[in-house]
Amino acid sequence: MYSEKVMDHFAHPRNVGEIENANAVGLVGNAKCGDIMKIYMDIQDNIIKDVKFKTFGCGAAIATSSMATEMVKGKTVEEALELTNKAVMEALDGLPAEKIHCSVLAEEAIRDAIEDYRKRQNEQQ
Length: 125
Description:
By secondary structure, the chain is an alpha+beta fold. The protein has a single domain, classed as Alpha-Beta Complex (Sufe protein. Chain: A), CATH 3.90.1010.10. It is 47% helix and 20% strand. It contains 5 helices and 3 strands, in the order αβββαααα. The chain has helices at 4-11, 59-72, 77-81, 85-91, 100-124, and strands spanning 24-29, 36-44, 47-56. A 3-stranded antiparallel β-sheet has the order 1-2-3. Helix 1 crosses helix 2, helix 2 packs across helix 5 and helix 4 crosses helix 5 (100-124). It is globular, with a radius of gyration of 14 Å. It starts with a helix and ends with a helix. The relative contact order is 0.22.
């Protein structure tokens, strides 16, 4: 059912936790399945220096959160915005059809955090 990569990111998720002074925080959820993802970012000079997540949900939700954070760490804000749920799924060697929504949540959480970052930047100007 799940690929080895999905199982690895579920059993050994990368970047779990929160960033105390994060300047970007994204929160998304899916009421239908109950998954909730919160992404924290430390963005400096337009580069995502650090990213962490807290996810309440199934194994696929945790695995997609873990993979998505790995994929955007060290990237520019613009590069991170190009991340798609399809890219997350491919990096995990696929997901069952009924779990694709988890990769969509991961993409949305990244976008929500960057939107938060941009709002904060505008408020500081």
